[in-house]
Amino acid sequence: MSQLELINMGEVARQEVDWLYYPYLPFGKISIVQGDPGEGKTLLMMAIIARLSRGEPLFSEAFGREPMTCIYQTAEDGLGDTIKPRLEDAGADCSRVFVVNEDKAALTFTDTRIEDAITATGAKLLILDPLQAYLGAQVDMHRANEVRPAFHALAGIAQRTGCAIVLVGHMNKTKGQGSLYRGLGSIDIAGAARSILLVRREKDEPSVLHLAHIKSNLAPLGQTLSFEVADGQVSFLGGSGTCDISGSIVKHYTQSC
After folding, report:
1. Which CATH class name applies to 18-256?
2. Interior/surface letters 101-139, b for 16+ CB within 10 angstroms, e for the rest
């Protein structure tokens, strides 16, 4: 039996949340970007990495930041034939982008190599794409009692390193559910994330996609962001009005999918 240890909240120092991109992507926390396959999630991640690696602003930001190092893990695309070309086409400084070698062992949320990689590179953003590939073979993503320990471990890494961790998620095919329930797996996955963004293609203009902020534990929900994909290139279009869970984009998504 574990020894009892108590934390007196009177002795805990208050801390302000630091942001990679307010109010969407907090440092030191887990966020999720989710949407149906082919909706441009990976291209969006490449564009964000490219901008951060060059210290350039995201979406409608007025100013950039110091160039940042990022780690991008993918279980769906080849590094040399897909990821590297996409990064270069997006204009990324590839010397600031790292990948943990998984040739000998697959990476999981509880793998010590995640924290080691963040510490070794000084990465400020880690992307795992898609999230279900990194839960681990022994974790059933539909079982809350198995999902929670894995997310707890990953959240601890984010908090200790101050790195923003973004998970790319796919959607289930169930119709008529609220947007937070459309992510694959247990609702505890959505519960563990501090911020969730939903990618949705514009019905009447397929090259335009919207990024709706459907969950935020640390700040008010942000504006719906928009971006355009043309010839494999992403152009940020900025904000398009305040969005809440009953907003038109999310409502349309829930009813029509």
Report:
1. alpha beta
2. eeeeeebbbbbeebbebbeebebbbbbbbbbbbbbbeeb
Find residue 235's DSSP bridge partners.
228
Place of tokens 């707890």: 152
pLDDT in tens, 150-161: 999 999 999 999
122: left (phi over 0), alpha (psi -120 to 50) or beta: left
The tokens describing 3, both together, are: 């020894």
Q: What is the pLDDT of residue 60?
A: 84
- The pTM for the full model equals 0.88
